[in-house]
User: What shape does this take?
Amino acid sequence: MIIRVWGRNNYGQLDMPPEAFGDDFAEVAAGWYHTLARKSDGSLIAWGWNDFGQIDLPIPNENFIKISTEFAHNAALTTSGTVVCWGRDDYGQVSDAPVGTGFVDVSAGNRHCLALTSSGTIVAWGIDAFNQVSHTPTGSNFTQVWAGSFSSFALTSEGYIETWGRGDLNQLEVPSPNENFVAVRYCAGLKSDGTVVLWGPKPDYPGASEDDKYPEIPMVVATAPNNFREIMTSIFGWSIALTNNNVIVVWGRNEYNQCEPPAPLTGWKCVSAGVYHGVGLKEVATESCYGEFFLRCSKIREKR
Assistant: This one.
């Protein structure tokens, strides 16, 4: 699959390096101002903002099966079930990563991380200003974790979403009925019938300071039919969803064209939302001009 990027480019998060112009990518993740991608062979590439070494890839750069990023640090999972973190480390979000094997999921938040063990328990580390680490539930029935911006989310085997951490902007208020979920994201869930459910910040939150204004953009439910298979949300008020037939649907804030992904809108396999930029993977067959574009980039690399 090939990488497509769009939206704001203030830190080079859209400036794909030569090695990004291939068709063997398996996963992408958008940080605040940087972009991370995983190739089919388990190696990683990254580009964009690098004030905290977030695009300086770990060594050895191999055997990765999952990547996650949010603000200025990254978390990844290897084939052996180990957690690897790098980037900003002001609250131990990198250096306090758990050691050992047996992890099956990992998620990087603003300055904290969550990891899921094969036994269904959650490990959390990093900043704890809103109890997003210390209030981690102790059960062993979890199947997925997601670290947001000072809030934490987890999905149980029963399809129930647990939330903890910062909740003053309604981030923890999962709409009723809290059931039949198959995926969880920041203030978002996907149900087994393909329904997207969103909650969280409201534009008229009383008493919010100017510093709290940025997440208060309403995250409205998409008007497309309920046939979604993926949902990704940005803490800055816009969302991306993929339908079962791989059509991309984007809505919310759009001051940097982050809600205008490149056409065609079909053939999307994977997406991620940063602050004001998006990144996704598409089938090569949906990009009629990509072969010529890739050939041109290959020739540029050969000349260097």
Remarks:
- The radius of gyration is 18 Å.
